[in-house]
Design a protein that fits this description.
Length: 296
């Protein structure tokens, strides 16, 4: 996890900032005061701002109707500067973002943080590259915001984020590899795509890298929920204490089945459901479902 921007420790309260690809449900953002800088979705010449003028439900409806794969773009530098400047006179800021392997978002946040700290020298802005996506870092952002609400220091919360990231795993399967291939966010998976014809993959995201855990031959009718859950058990021992988030892109039945399996085999001290938002959905596609597991 990349860390930068620490200037000095002081007893200011901490504001948590993230971007819209964290997929943190709105009730958590409102309750905990999490600031969210949105990314953009481009359908041809039309530009939509995630969670502002397009929501997940509308996005997936539009993709189905148009059969078009849109593109995405990072927030502008000015958007980050304006966000940080709103809080810099009263708060220190921790800003945790989508992996720099996938987007320019982290770089924009980093540059904005340096700019705002020159304007507000009493403010520390810590910009963190999560090396993850969606609730893979959204869960950690929620926990960080809870600690901030308790009045913990910026150094304590930063240490927590680093440690939590090491224990947080994201598992997912996609309806089709088309979106990952078209989006170009597959790294070393590109070489195995020819062998995936007629198959689906159980995938994981760690340290900014999407990796294939298992090929599943769909011609023999394998249950992808069972296969995904099997990969979770291989990584995180059954009966462990965990936090869990299950999320989906228009695959709620699969997500609910996966959540039931997780609850039956683990000691879930905390769990909730979320939705894969439009920007992440551009690159994973309709039919994706996923689990984020944090070992305790």
């Amino acid at each position: 996890m990349g860390l930068t921007g620490m200037k000095r420790a002081n007893m200011r309260h901490v504001k948590i900032v993230t971007d819209s690809t964290s997929d943190v449900p709105i009730e958590f953002r409102q309750k905990l005061g999490i600031e969210q800088v949105p990314l953009k979705i481009h359908f041809g010449d039309e530009v939509f701002i995630e969670n502002v003028n397009i929501c997940a439900e509308e996005f997936y409806r539009r993709v189905r109707q148009t059969n078009q794969i849109p593109s995405t773009s990072a927030p502008d530098l000015v958007e980050f500067i304006e966000c940080y400047a709103r809080w810099a006179d009263r708060y220190n800021i921790i800003s945790i973002h989508l992996s720099s392997e996938f987007s320019e978002t982290y770089r924009m946040a980093l540059e904005a943080g340096d700019h705002v700290m020159k304007q507000f020298p009493e403010c520390t802005i810590q910009v963190i590259d999560s090396k993850s996506a969606s609730m893979g870092f959204g869960l950690i952002a929620v926990q960080a915001a809870e600690f901030a609400k308790e009045g913990r220091s910026i150094s304590d919360i930063t240490d927590f984020i680093y440690q939590a990231n090491l224990k947080t795993y994201a598992f997912f399967t996609v309806g089709t590899m088309t979106y990952l291939r078209m989006g170009g966010r597959i790294g070393n998976l590109r070489s195995i795509l020819p062998s995936m014809i007629g198959k689906k993959g159980i995938l994981t995201l760690k340290e900014g890298t999407v990796s294939l855990l298992e090929r599943v031959d769909m011609r023999i009718g394998m249950d992808m929920v069972d296969k995904l859950f099997g990969s979770i058990i291989k990584t995180v021992p059954s009966k462990s204490e965990i936090f869990s988030v299950v999320l989906d892109a228009s695959a709620p039945d699969k997500a609910e089945q996966l959540m039931e399996r997780i609850l039956s085999r683990y000691q879930c001290r905390r769990y909730f459901r979320s939705t894969i938002g439009p920007v992440v959905g551009v690159h994973t596609g309709i039919g994706t479902f996923a689990a984020v597991i944090q070992s305790l």
